[in-house]
Design goal:
alpha+beta
Length: 145
């Protein structure tokens, strides 16, 4: 049975030091992919953009800087854990978002009630997910090529 947790959080999209604007961000967690959370950013004038990354990265990032590669999450101020910065990067392009911590913690708490941290392996069917991901990648390459 596929179950999920969803929440909408308002985040600040930090365009520069002088310019930022608030955008709605949908947070989603599904038991069909128990290690990941998905954040869908609704940027004005653009199609929604969805990023998927480890739930544990979001949990850890609320309290301390963490992340490698394309996703980095860290408290905005290490002395006060009221806000978190989420940096997403593709190549040279990056986007920086600031969120209040309480709605993220509430969302993560709901995911933990659905699938406790450390119990994801009981739900994960890696062979099926791997085959599905490979099929999707191959289909995208064929349509682009």
């Amino acid at each position: 049975m596929r179950e999920s947790v969803q929440a909408e959080v308002m985040m600040s999209f930090l365009v520069s030091e002088e310019l930022s604007f608030r955008i709605p961000v949908e947070l989603r967690y599904e038991t069909s992919d128990p290690y990941a959370v998905r954040l869908t950013f609704h940027l004005p004038g653009d199609a929604p953009v969805t990023w998927a990354f480890g739930r544990e990265l979001l949990i850890d990032g609320v309290g301390r800087p963490c992340g490698e590669g394309d996703v980095h999450i860290a408290p905005a101020d290490c002395e006060m854990l009221g806000e978190v910065l989420i940096r997403l990067q593709v190549g040279c392009d990056q986007a920086l978002f600031r969120s209040s911590v309480p709605p993220l913690v509430a969302f993560l708490d709901r995911t933990d009630k659905l699938v406790p941290l450390g119990q994801e392996g009981a739900l994960a069917d890696f062979d099926a997910h791997l085959e599905e991901a490979l099929d999707r990648i191959l289909a995208e390459e064929q349509s682009a090529g």
